[in-house]
Amino acid sequence: MEKYIFITGATSGFGEASARLFAENGWNLILTGRREERLQKIKQELEKTHAVSVTTLCFDVRDEKAVNSAVEGMPIAIKQNIEIVLNNAGLAVGRNSIEDGITDDWNRMVDTNIKGLLYVTRAVVPYLKENKKGHIFNLGSIAGKEVYAGGNVYCATKHAVDALSKAMRIDLVEYGIKVTNIAPGAAETEFSIVRFKGDVATAKNIYQGFEPLQAKDIAETIYFVATRPGHVTINDLTIMPTAQASATVFSKKS
Ligand code: NDP
Ligand code: 8X3
Fold it and tell me: Is the CB of 184 under 6 A from ligand 1?
């Protein structure tokens, strides 16, 4: 089987869990992220365990030229066999009220979550178009459906992802390309450690008193959506921990 899934942000969390699950099911992988050492470790493990081909591309999705040259540099035989693009790389930085916003935090979120997703999509879509099929997954969030205190710019970027998923669906429908927006609630990955700039105690506290989603839960959902019959598309899925009713309402035990 020569089909490939192209995953951004495969060094951690949802991206890594998806890489593992698709490899388990015989998919070849194109794994991207900034942390080369992690990419190599995952490649070695998955190639050995599942006898699949793993291509690694180390780049920052904010760097338009790096995105384009990484995709251009892949062998044509691999590019032509990309069936799924998982636009997953993303982050929140800070949780300040709007008047205390830090420009660098804002730029990191806008440049990664919106512009990075756009650069990757534009570079890869021509290969899906040629095949007249394919599936793009965009990692949105409950923060792309609702807003919450201190979520301002992160929520805005995920609302943008929601809008881009709808827009891509319209632009690409004539090529048979499916587009799915995945909108999880609280999931315990490296997300909060990044958001709170390495403050592990504050990050851990976010998940106290309830059972958060795990990366595997999201990977399993993506795999389910990806394996529906050709004529079926799941456009949009909101996936929450059972103890989370909305972006801000939790049932927490002390
Ligand atoms: P993690 O922090 O565990 O993983 C984020 C991944 O994104 C890493 O592999 C990281 O790789 C990559 N990444 C971040 N910035 C860049 C960049 N500039 N260039 C390339 N890769 C980058 O978080 P999650 O797995 O939780 O998050 C994945 C996605 O899901 C994000 O878009 C997030 O917003 C979204 N999400 C998360 C939720 C949660 O509660 N965890 C809920 C809803 C949505 P590296 O550092 O190696 O570059
Ligand atoms: C991550 C979930 O609720 O922290 O997108 O925004 S939340």
Answer: yes
